[in-house]
TrEMBL record:
Belongs to the thymidine kinase family. The active site is at 88 (proton acceptor). This is Thymidine kinase. The keyword ATP-binding applies. The gene is tdk. Pfam families: TK (PF00265). It comes from the Bacteria. GO terms for molecular function: thymidine kinase activity.
Length: 193
């Protein structure tokens, strides 16, 4: 039975690296994957998943209006898919997460989704909320806070390094904008800002 997997973490835990490694493992065995990435994340170019350690792969882009089920069906008609992998899965909509379940249940193709659990305010993203609720398998990818404890939260910083406590939920950035922290340090920093 194909399953829907959600691999979640805070920033800089290696989600994209793990996704790329999984795709490589399938390809090494002569199997085919479809990598999906949100159009709004163009830090390394549109239609590209790139890891901080420098590896990357081409991806099919999607936006909030995309019919994920149709995209996967069309790709499967062109080349039988053995797995679907999704980078930055927090940007999926509720309907798109539901469609991923259909891919597993109706098409019998496993789906591996990778994303953040919460935003810079500690609030869940729409895609993450429904993946946490509906995925068959949840796996936390761990990273650490500056204190050495497990980082589960992330703060956004401005150009001067000051913590930002309001603004749009989605603002694309990397190490220049976001810092992963344990809950204790998140609460100390976020509520002091």
């Amino acid at each position: 039975m194909a399953k829907l997997y959600f691999h979640y973490s805070s920033m800089n835990a290696g989600k994209s690296t793990t996704l790329l490694q999984s795709s490589y493992n399938y390809a090494e065995r002569g199997m085919h994957t479809l990598i999906l990435a949100p159009a709004l994340d163009d830090r390394f170019g549109s239609g590209r998943v790139t890891s901080r350690i420098g590896i990357g792969a081409d991806a099919h882009i999607f936006n909030r209006e995309a019919d994920i089920f149709r995209i996967i069906c069309d790709a499967n008609e062109q080349q039988k898919l053995d797995c679907v992998l999704i980078d930055e899965a927090q940007f999926l909509t509720k309907e798109q997460v539901f469609s991923l379940g259909r891919v597993c249940d109706e098409m019998r193709i496993p789906v591996l989704a990778y994303g953040l659990r919460t935003d810079f305010r500690g609030e869940p993203f729409e895609g993450s909320k429904y993946l946490l609720a509906w995925a068959d398998n949840l796996k936390e990818i761990k990273t650490i806070c500056h204190c050495g404890k497990k980082a589960t939260m992330v703060v956004r910083q401005d150009a001067d390094g000051s913590v930002v406590t309001d603004g749009a939920q989605v603002e694309i950035g990397g190490n220049d904008r976001y810092v992963s922290l344990c809950r204790r340090h998140f609460n100390e920093i976020f509520h002091r800002a």
